[in-house]
Amino acid sequence: MKFAQRTVKTSSAGLDAIFAASGPNVISFAGGYPDATLFPEHAMQAAFSESFAQHSGSLLQYSTTAGYLPLREKLADRMNRRDHLNLKADDILLTQGAQQGIDLTARLLLDKGDGVIVEGPTYIGGLAAFDAYEPTYYEVPIEEDGMDITKLQKALMQHQVKLIYTIPDFQNPTGTVMSVEKRQAMVQLANQYDVVILEDSPYRDLRYTGENLPTIKSFDTEGRVISLGSFSKILAPSLRLGWLTAAPELLAALTALKAAADVESSHLVAVAVDTFMNDNDLDAHIDAMKQVYQTKRDAMLNALERYMPKDVHFNHPDGGFFLWLTLPEGFDMQHFMTAELLPEYNVSLVPSHHLYASKSIENGARLNFTNVSEATIESGIKMLGQALNDALHPAQVNQI
Amino acid sequence: MKFAQRTVKTSSAGLDAIFAASGPNVISFAGGYPDATLFPEHAMQAAFSESFAQHSGSLLQYSTTAGYLPLREKLADRMNRRDHLNLKADDILLTQGAQQGIDLTARLLLDKGDGVIVEGPTYIGGLAAFDAYEPTYYEVPIEEDGMDITKLQKALMQHQVKLIYTIPDFQNPTGTVMSVEKRQAMVQLANQYDVVILEDSPYRDLRYTGENLPTIKSFDTEGRVISLGSFSKILAPSLRLGWLTAAPELLAALTALKAAADVESSHLVAVAVDTFMNDNDLDAHIDAMKQVYQTKRDAMLNALERYMPKDVHFNHPDGGFFLWLTLPEGFDMQHFMTAELLPEYNVSLVPSHHLYASKSIENGARLNFTNVSEATIESGIKMLGQALNDALHPAQVNQI
């Protein structure tokens, strides 16, 4: 019994190893979870009940692969308002979270060996999805304002590439936002080199400070940008509901691939989310979430300021779920976490190793601030500071 | 912008063309839908409400890729009882319907060009899922008691094959049940030729007459059988909830692939279905459904008996959703439907063409009897009989 070559690769992506690093007594900055206390449980319960009452005879039946039309209309309206786009419902496909959008895009475009440009670091689940199609990765470093465009251009000049995968808004894992200039430049390069851009943006609505920037899609002149959104971070992950926007020819092919993968997303869930949006102000709900997350982000920045050794760098994200630690070169974060931080301090984070397609950068880490309380942030970051101090400056340990 | 080779193939599978053949005035025997009037809407509404009340704080959060443990325990117990298996919860992965189980199995095993044995005819969605991995198909004809085992053996002797795809219980599209002897023989051949069997069995619980036969999995001695089940046909399709059972090594790899494809299935839906099963007797619900479906099957057999021309053959399935029409050789069902049956009689069915991987058999058709009323069955089959009479015996038309 021989597995396909793709399987051998995907199975070793190490997703499980990372998220297993949380137990009942562990302070986990490793996850990518929303704060469960912010879920609109009562309103969602009411939306499900109302959906049953109002959609008798069709709610539990098959629907269409594209998904429930009124919800797709709402999503189009919302993006048109928010992002000054000009979308119709038929430009949208409902998906199983944004994750399925990555999988379907890879399935649409990638034959074995085809070139994909990814950010370094990037979303580990993106790499896991791409792995199944055995691409050749070209990793372009993330700078403070997004992907290094000079290196992106160089990669496009030197290699045969079909897809650029980017998370422009509050990137997972770094929290970085891509500048307007780079968004425009990326589209121009995609046009020049005949490449598709996959704009994965599940955190876009979660900006705490600063002004929103236009989507990459808003600069798309040739129908080359596939955009992904998700209700996981703004409403609830267990809905498993996301959406995908693409030009008609791409969308038709992606819809056929979705039908082959799982027929369609849950009509029941789509109707309930549509009902929720009829009966509640989603934007007001998001605003309330943002206040809590901003406070948590500030608490983490404040604690980092106080407890990090001077040679540890951290960034100041304007939104999203994560910030990024950079340790001095040569530091092995994976070893530090498994040998010291987790067993001795009961604190976990995501070491950089698995977040790079190249697996070449060891001295970084992702910290999540949304699914931990302020008190836990304070005590956890304090312990992380001590542990890093111990590891970086062992001579000082006995003096504390 | 060049699509992957797999995409070009999948997009042309013709799924849409087939199911588009139903409008408001069309009597459709083409779909594969359950009867929506049989859905337990009130009980399901209550189960969702109770889930919100009892799982506050976790219901809307991420869960695990394997899925909600109590539901997997129930599924294991149910299969152990029904099929004399010895499964534990950890032998089961929740999926987006059985369809995702096909996709994940193909992803696990198939490199481009690898051999897959499929039944002729088979489930069109199975072919669509396999197409994405560009296998080489070997088509083995279905007989009255399942796959032709002599031809199966010959195919295994002559070709490099990695996977046998079979629907042993009330097969889609023919309604055929595979005999016990053939189930045993298939496992022996799989052992001998080092092949995995994918046992796709969404209709297994829907037997109206005769005795249930053991699953193929019950004869599995080497952990080579991956079994798929689904709530779509016994509870509701819009739950998009199915399950997959496989030996530990296979299951671990399939779970990693599921994580890469869509992270996990909806925890909310899994808890609600578990709650439904706590508060209701699923088997009693299925028994009630079976009574209705048996009546519809009998109505269709009765109408076929009365209205079909003598040279049209139809089978007598003991369960499931479908029966199979065989027309004289040379008859082109696809042409008949699009040129005569649909435009002139407003009746639709699924012609055999797309249901064969080889696309070589034109004189068959699938008829669905679950999603049509008895009165519609009577009038629709009467018109189908007239239309076939017109087509097969044009001289007789004026005498009716």
From TrEMBL, chains A, B:
Xref: SUPFAM superfamilies: PLP-dependent transferases
Keywords: Aminotransferase, Pyridoxal phosphate, Transferase
Listed cofactors: pyridoxal 5'-phosphate
Xref: InterPro entries: Aminotransferase_I/II_large (IPR004839), Class-I_PLP-dep_aminotransf (IPR050859), PyrdxlP-dep_Trfase (IPR015424), PyrdxlP-dep_Trfase_major (IPR015421), PyrdxlP-dep_Trfase_small (IPR015422)
Domain Aminotransferase class I/classII large: 33-382
Gene Ontology terms: biological process: alpha-amino acid metabolic process
Family matches, as Gene3D superfamilies: Aspartate Aminotransferase, domain 1, Type I PLP-dependent aspartate aminotransferase-like (Major domain)
GO molecular function: pyridoxal phosphate binding; transaminase activity
Subunit structure and binding partners: Homodimer.
Assigned protein family: Belongs to the class-I pyridoxal-phosphate-dependent aminotransferase family.
Protein name: Aminotransferase
Species classification: Bacteria, Bacillati, Bacillota, Bacilli, Lactobacillales
